[in-house]
Write the structure tokens for this entry.
Amino acid sequence: MPLYWTENRYTGVVSSWDFVYWQADLIWIFMVLIFRGVDCSRMEASKHMEMGREFLSKGQFADALSHYHAAIDSDPKNYQTLYSRATVYLAIGKSKAALPDLDSVIRLKPDFIAARIERGNVLLKQGDIHQAKADFEAAAKADPSNADVSKKLSSVEEVRQIIEEADDYFDVGDLASAEPLYSSAIKVCQWYADLYKNRAKCREKLGDVQKAISDYRTVTKLLPDSTETFYKISQLYYLTGDVEESLK
């Protein structure tokens, strides 16, 4: 049988049932503390969520973002807060930061159609046509009457065909035909670095070096670690006689 001790001395032997009751009391106290901690975290998250919405409505994105960060730290599985933070990231042009939040939202709430559509929009702009189509198809399945989603699906298929045609011309050296097709695709896939790279090559060969440089500069913004592209820009500036720019 378990022994019972006070702070200063041993007081005897207690029954097994007494020991069980004692353990049950400890478990109950522990659970109460846990639930109180969870409630406090949720209250804190709710407060930050409300402040985030308030700053967002005023267009104060940095302040809104700070509160959404704090809300997610307190309640990391709240899909609504994650979605709100993603919308702020998109509003300030940080699509790469928005994607993980949208991924988390869809993982936590697969039937959240707004998140599917937003992620599809981002992926389409980045040139991930296959995954963008999958998101739009999921949204269309959940809401067949959504005309906007139907248009997006049509746009996905159209740009896929344009890129395929542009690549075919590019591969056989018909750069004059490829260049305007890449321009059309870029209107939809604004953040797809490969399109800018290929259009730059077309423009360079067609003699429009300044526009080629502009495209290569866009590539360096989309892919900041593209040292090859920085070197290419330097080469083109040198060829045009702009030695000072070539050394930057």
Summary: Confidence is low (pLDDT under 50) at residues 1-14, 17-22, 28-35. The CA atoms of residues 90 and 140 lie 22 Å apart. The two ends are 82 Å apart (CA to CA).
